[in-house]
C-alpha cells in the first residue's frame, strides 16, 4: 500500500493506515504524506516507511513504485477532495489500483473522468464508504434481500454531528468549508454521501428522485453545514435523509431505519454491534454481532466473540481486507466501486443545485 495524504495533524490518513494493516494482509510501504519535506519525512518515520520511499508528490511515487519489482500494489487517497482526481489519475495511468476516501472527487465531471479512465485502463478501484463494512450492516442487507421484512416501503437515514456548530477552526474543519478544497458541497459531501450510500447499500434499492433543502446555519459559510431531503426509491419506497454538522452536542450519530411490509430494522453507528428487528405482530428481536445465526458475509467480518465491541477501525479494515481479496483475484468483495462514487457525486451536484434553485422534486439521474 502507498498512501497519499496522512501527514502530521491529519485525521483520516492514520485511520486508513491502521485499518489497512489491522489483519496483517497489507503493509504500508510508501507514501507522499505532505508537500512539506520536513513533514513528509516526519510522517514516514511515524508510519515506519523507509526514507527513500517517502516521495515529494504522488506523481513521483507512482512513477518510482511502478518501476520497482516490489512496488506498491495499490494507492490509498486520503486527502482533501480537490486532490482525489490527480492522485487517482496518476495511479490508474500507471496501472496501479486505487482505494479512495469519499467523496470520489470534488465535482461530478471529475468523477466521470475517473470512470472513463477505468474504462480505458481497468484496475481495481474502491471507495471507503466505511460504514458499509460493519458486519451487522451487511447482515441487514442480506436479510432484506432474502425478504425478511417484505417489500421496503419507508427508509429514514440520519447523520448527526455537532462539531461545526461554531467557528470552523483547525485543519480538519477549515478545508471542509473551503470550496477550493472540498468542492461544491460541505456537509452533503462530507457525511451526506455516507448516509445516501448506506441507504442504497442496505435496502438494495436506488434513489430515483430527490427533494433537497441545504443551507448554512453558521453565518459566513459558503458551503452547506446542514441538509435534509426527501427521497423516492426505484421500487416506490419513500425516504428521508438528514445530515447535519451543526446539531450541537451530537457526536457521530449515523442511524438507519428501514420499514417493510412485515417488519423493520433499526441500527445506529454509535452502538454498531446490534440491530433491532421489529416484527409485524409487535414483537422485537435484538440481533447481535458474532451471533452464530448470522450469515457468512457478516461472520467473515467479525473478529471477536460476542460482547466484545468492534467499531469503525474494524469496519474499515473489512473493506481493506476485501480489496486485498480483489487484488489477489478472489471473489466476494462488497467494497463500493467507482459507480457508487459516481452516484455520490451526482447526489452532491443535484442536491446543491436543486436546493439553490428551490426546484422541489427532481429526477435523480446519474
Summary of the model, kept short:
The protein has 366 residues and is α/β, with parallel strands linked by helices. It is built from twelve helices and 14 strands. The strands form two sheets. The protein has a nine-stranded mixed beta sheet. It has a five-stranded parallel beta sheet with strand order 2-1-3-4-5, sandwiched between helices.
Key features of this structure:
single chain; 366 residues; alpha/beta; Rossmann fold; Dihydrodipicolinate Reductase, domain 2; 9-stranded mixed β-sheet; 12 helices; Gfo/Idh/MocA family oxidoreductase; nucleotide binding; GFO_IDH_MocA-like_dom; Gfo/Idh/MocA-like_OxRdtase_N; NAD(P)-bd_dom_sf
Give your account of this protein's structure.
This protein has 2 domains: 2-127, 3-Layer(aba) Sandwich (Rossmann fold); 132-306 and 338-357, Dihydrodipicolinate Reductase, domain 2 (2-Layer Sandwich), CATH 3.30.360.10. Helix 5 runs antiparallel to helix 12. The radius of gyration is 20 Å and the shape is globular. The protein has 12 helices and 14 strands. Strands 13-12-11-10-6-9-8-7-14 form a 9-stranded mixed beta sheet. Strands 2-1-3-4-5 form a 5-stranded parallel beta sheet, sandwiched between helices. The longest helix is centred in the C-terminal third of the chain and has 20 residues, at 338-357. It has helices at residues 12-21, 37-47, 58-67, 84-93, 108-120, 135-145, 171-176, 179-182, 187-203, 296-300, 312-327, 338-357; strands at residues 2-5, 30-32, 74-78, 97-100, 125-127, 152-160, 207-215, 226-233, 238-244, 253-260, 263-268, 271-279, 284-288, 361-363. Strand 11 and strand 12 (271-279) form a beta hairpin. With 366 residues, it is α/β, with parallel strands linked by helices. InterPro entries: Gfo/Idh/MocA-like_OxRdtase_N (IPR000683), Gfo/Idh/MocA_oxidoreduct (IPR051317), GFO_IDH_MocA-like_dom (IPR055170), NAD(P)-bd_dom_sf (IPR036291). Residues 3-125 form the Gfo/Idh/MocA-like oxidoreductase N-terminal domain.
Amino acid at each position: 500500500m502507498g498512501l497519499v495524504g496522512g501527514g502530521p495533524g491529519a485525521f483520516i490518513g492514520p485511520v486508513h493506515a491502521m485499518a489497512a494493516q489491522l489483519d496483517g494482509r497489507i503493509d504500508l510501504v510508501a507514501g507522499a504524506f505532505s508537500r512539506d519535506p520536513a513533514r513528509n519525512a516526519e510522517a514516514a518515520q511515524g508510519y515506519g516507511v523507509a526514507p527513500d520511499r517517502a516521495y515529494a508528490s504522488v506523481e513521483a511515487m507512482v512513477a518510482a513504485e511502478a518501476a520497482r519489482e516490489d512496488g506498491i500494489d495499490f494507492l490509498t487517497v486520503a486527502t482533501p477532495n480537490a486532490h482525489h482526481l490527480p492522485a487517482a489519475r496518476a495511479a490508474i495511468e500507471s496501472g496501479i489500483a486505487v482505494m479512495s476516501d469519499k467523496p470520489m472527487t470534488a465535482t461530478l465531471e471529475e468523477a466521470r473522468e475517473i470512470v472513463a479512465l477505468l474504462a480505458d485502463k481497468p484496475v481495481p478501484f474502491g471507495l471507503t464508504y466505511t460504514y458499509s463494512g460493519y458486519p451487522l450492516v451487511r447482515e441487514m442487507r442480506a436479510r432484506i434481500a432474502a425478504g425478511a421484512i417484505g417489500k421496503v416501503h419507508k427508509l429514514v437515514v440520519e447523520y448527526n454531528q455537532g462539531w461545526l456548530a461554531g467557528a470552523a477552526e483547525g485543519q480538519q474543519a477549515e478545508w471542509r468549508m473551503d470550496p477550493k478544497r472540498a468542492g461544491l458541497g460541505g456537509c452533503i459531501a462530507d457525511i451526506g454521501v455516507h448516509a445516501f450510500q448506506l441507504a442504497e447499500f442496505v435496502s438494495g434499492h436506488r434513489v430515483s428522485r430527490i427533494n433537497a433543502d441545504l443551507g448554512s446555519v453558521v453565518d459566513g459559510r459558503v458551503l452547506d453545514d446542514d441538509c435534509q431531503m426527501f427521497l423516492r426509491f426505484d421500487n416506490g419506497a419513500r425516504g428521508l435523509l438528514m445530515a447535519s454538522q451543526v446539531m450541537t452536542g451530537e457526536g457521530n450519530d449515523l442511524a438507519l431505519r428501514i420499514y417493510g411490509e412485515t417488519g423493520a430494522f433499526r441500527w445506529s453507528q454509535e452502538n454498531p454491534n446490534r440491530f433491532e428487528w421489529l416484527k409485524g405482530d409487535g414483537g422485537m428481536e435484538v440481533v447481535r454481532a458474532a451471533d452464530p445465526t448470522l450469515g457468512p458475509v457478516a461472520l467473515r467480518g467479525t473478529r471477536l466473540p460476542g460482547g466484545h465491541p468492534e467499531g469503525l477501525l474494524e469496519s474499515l479494515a473489512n473493506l481493506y481486507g476485501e480489496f486485498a481479496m480483489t487484488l489477489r483475484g478472489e471473489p466476494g468483495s462488497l467494497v463500493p466501486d467507482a459507480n457508487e462514487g459516481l452516484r455520490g457525486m451526482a447526489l452532491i451536484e443535484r442536491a446543491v443545485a436543486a436546493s439553490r434553485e428551490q426546484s422541489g422534486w427532481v429526477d435523480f439521474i446519474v
